[in-house]
Amino acid sequence: MSDTAPKTIGNPASWVLQSMQSASHGTADAIDEIRGASHSRPRVRSLDMADLTHALRAGWDDFKAARSDAMFLVFIYPLIGLAMVVSGFHLEVLPLLVPMVMGFALVGPAAAIGLYEMSRRREAGQPMGWASAFAVIRSPAFASVLMLAFYLAALFVIWIMVAEAIYGATLGPESPATLSAFVRDVFYTSSGWTMIIVGTLVGAAFAYAALAISIVSFPLLLDRHVGLPIAVATSLEVMRKNRVVCLAWGALVGLMLVIGSVPLFAGLIFVVPLLGHATWHLYRRAVM
Fold first, then answer.
1. In this model, does residue 16 exceed pLDDT 60?
2. Shortest CA distance to 115 belongs to which of 54, 67, 51?
3. What is the pLDDT of residue 124?
4. Above pLDDT 70, what percent of the chain?
5. d(CA 186, CA 193)
6. 11, 30, 56 from 138: Cα distances, Å
7. Is the pLDDT of residue 28 over 50?
8. pLDDT, average across residues 91-111
9. Is the confidence at residue 161, as pLDDT, over 60?
10. Residue 119 contacts by C-beta under 8 Å, 6 or more apart in sequence?
11. 271, 272, 275, 276: CA torsion to nearest 10
């Protein structure tokens, strides 16, 4: 007689109960990972401009090592940019075209999560193909990554709402009559210049907030089980301790994204992978 108990399908009620128990365990594990297993905060280094140069060079090496994989991974981003431009031809959306395109950089750190994973794997001597980038889905930190991405997405939505309010208080609230009339109102009226100046200053504040909470938090979540609060706190500490270098990095990222967007967003296929890989190496320079 076999000692192995026969396997049975069980009744539907027991199957549902087992599924609920499995889901509850998964949810509990995700919550524990978000909170973090350790309350110790990683140490933050002081950075200088040479660290930015190193990060870009190392990012370029990663890009060359898996050029086609990285380009395939970010191919959707130029399509998103083109979709925004096409939507801008509708006059009611036209005033928000520039805020939408520029605000897309707010969620860029979350969009490059697969590139961080590729650089992490190459550094560890592991396979670095585009398929390996999706390994983040199986990472224990995936729930934390999703939550932080949600925060950045919410910041993007709030920015669009604020940009719409700025337009309404200056040139609005009516939609532009024509494209040429909108351009004329923006550049040849005091209300238009008020919109440009106020929008730029407010947009810079949103960009600063996004940079401060995400400059190293996504790579840190992939690299260590620190939890979301410590990852964000560490990112804020990197910004506080290296404000000039971090602002220079943010300005460089913004400039490269603008340059990559000029030829119908096609340049983003090269710029986004380079910046994504470089961000990983900047994290490695900034956090001990």
1. no
2. 67
3. 87
4. 78
5. 6
6. 30, 12, 28
7. no
8. 83
9. yes
10. 59, 62, 276, 277, 280, 281
11. -160
Q: Enter the tokens of residue 117.
A: 């994973």
Q: Which residue has the higher pLDDT, 44 or 29?
A: 44
Task: Return d(Cα 110, Cα 218) in angstroms, integer.
Answer: 7
Cα(82)–Cα(79) distance, rounded to whole angstroms? 5
Beta bridge partners of 44: 287
Residue 75: the pLDDT is 65
The DSSP-derived string for the chain is: --SSPPP----HHHHHHHHHHHHHHHHHHHHHHHH-S--PPPPB----HHHHHHHHHHHHHHHHHTHHHHHHHTTHHHHHHHHHHHHHTSTTTGGGHHHHHHHGGGGHHHHTHHHHHHHHHHHTT----HHHHGGGGGSTTHHHHHHHHHHHHHHHHHHHHHHHHHHHHHT-SSPPSSHHHHHHHHHHSHHHHHHHHHHHHHHHHHHHHHHHHHTTHHHHHHHS---HHHHHHHHHHHHHHTHHHHHHHHHHHHHHHHHHHTTTTTTHHHHHHHHHHHHHHHHHHHB-
- Could you give the CA distance from residue 287 to residue 235 in angstroms, rounded to a whole number? 9
Q: Cβ distance 81 to 265 under 8 Å?
A: yes
Q: What is the pTM of this model?
A: 0.80
Q: Which residue has the higher pLDDT, 206 or 89?
A: 206
Judge whether residue 102 has pLDDT over 70. Answer: yes
Whole-number average pLDDT of the chain: 82
Nearest CA among 84, 68, 62 for reference residue 265: 84
CA distance 273 to 13: 49
19's tokens? 């599924």
Residue among 162, 247, 172, 168 nearest 210 (CA): 247
Whole-angstrom distance, CA of residue 82 vs CA of residue 13: 50
10 in Cβ contact with 206 (< 8 Å) = no
